[in-house]
Amino acid sequence: MTAMEGVKAGGYLPAAIYFDHEYSRFLTANFIHFGLLHLLMNMASLSNIGPFMEKIFGLKRYAVLIFGSALGTTVLPYLYYLVFEEPLSAAGLTVSGGASGIILGLLGGLCFLSWRYRGVYQKVFQSVVPSLLLVALMSVAIPTVSLSGHLGGFVGGFLTAFLISKINPNPLWEPTRYFSNNDYLN
Fold first, then answer.
1. How far apart are the C-alpha atoms of 24 and 51, rounded to whole Å?
2. Cα separations (Å) of 126 from 77, 168, 172, 185?
């Protein structure tokens, strides 16, 4: 898919949101991909972390986490664009899309669980840190990879998991409730 095809398909394009009020792009951008390799990489990543996070969060909380991550992927970079960029700057005319922000949002949710509940979540999150560092490096080194989308997705997932923990926490998240003497750390 070319950039123009991405625009037509609903890719994230700040200028279209700003000038034409095409707010649906906040969500649709998460479902378009620029080529088969892009789609396959996101599918593989989502199939690795998705089922694990669905099991931890439960179906409804997981759906909310995905939605919050999707919005974080586009809304947070858009807010940055509004505050720090000119409306017709290069940032406003750059199209992006893909599910990697959602994937990073799931990892942001795992990061929240690691920070808030420690225990096994901390060990699992530590195991994905090298992958996160690789994605961060790719986001900086490869101009066509969206650093703001990846960072926005991660932050969106972290914040959404925080809100879920306040509004509808999963009782299974408290490992001390089911294990004694920190058995889960061994």
1. 27
2. 26, 25, 20, 13
- 114, burial (CB in 10 Å: exposed 0-12, middle 13-18, buried 19+): buried
- The dihedrals phi and psi of 13, each to the nearest 5 degrees, come to -140, 100
Three-state SS at 2: coil
Active site residues: 100, 150
Q: How many CA atoms lie within 13 A of 151 on its CB side?
A: 13
The DSSP string of 135-147 is: HHHHHHH-TTS-H
d(CA 23, CA 109): 25
Q: Which residue type occupies 131?
A: S
pTM for the complete prediction? Answer: 0.87
Higher per-residue pLDDT: 175 or 32: 32
Q: Angle between the 100-117 and 36-57 helix axes, to the nearest 10 degrees? A: 30
- What mean pLDDT is predicted for residues 106-119? 93
Asked if 158 and 111 touch (Cβ cutoff 8 Å), the reply is: yes
| Closest to 147 (Cα-Cα) out of 138, 156, 155 | 138
Neighbouring CB atoms inside 10 A of 108's CB total: 27
Q: For residues 9 and 32, is the Cβ–Cβ distance under 8 A? A: yes
- Classify 17 as helix, strand or coil: helix
Domain ranges of the chain: 36-89+99-185
pLDDT at 39 > cutoff 60: yes
